[in-house]
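User: structure tokens for 8-oxo-dGTP diphosphatase, please.
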Amino acid sequence: MTETSNQAPVDVAVGILMRPDGDVLLGQRPDGKPYAGYWEFPGGKVEAGEDIFAALQREFMEELGVQVVSGDAWCCVEHVYEHAHVRLYFYICREWLGEPQSLEGQAFAWQGAFGVSPLLPATIPLLAWLDRVRYPER
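Assistant: Done. Predicted tokens:
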């Protein structure tokens, strides 16, 4: 899924909070950000010198008030948007403390069948992959 770009990619830590029943948390990008209204997995930019998983933990605390206890590195995907070239590091997180809160005014929802739309373009190809993780018997 890598496209060509003259920009250096921005590293982004992305977390997939997964409940025991397979439902995952999606957030809606707030007004004022590129792709406002689109749904995505929560996360954010990795700061210079920051470990990717530490960035994920920081972002979840800042955005959702959730302390991510552990996460399994799942995949890395590069995507070129009109506004940025990103390298997305996805973690599947099954252990966290606290309940998600909307600390930055964003909507969020637990999804089992990914019924929300529109989805952020880099998220779309991951859904089939994620279904194999969520429901390996299929």
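User: Anything notable?

Assistant: The domain at 10-134 is CATH 3.90.79.10 (Nucleoside Triphosphate Pyrophosphohydrolase).
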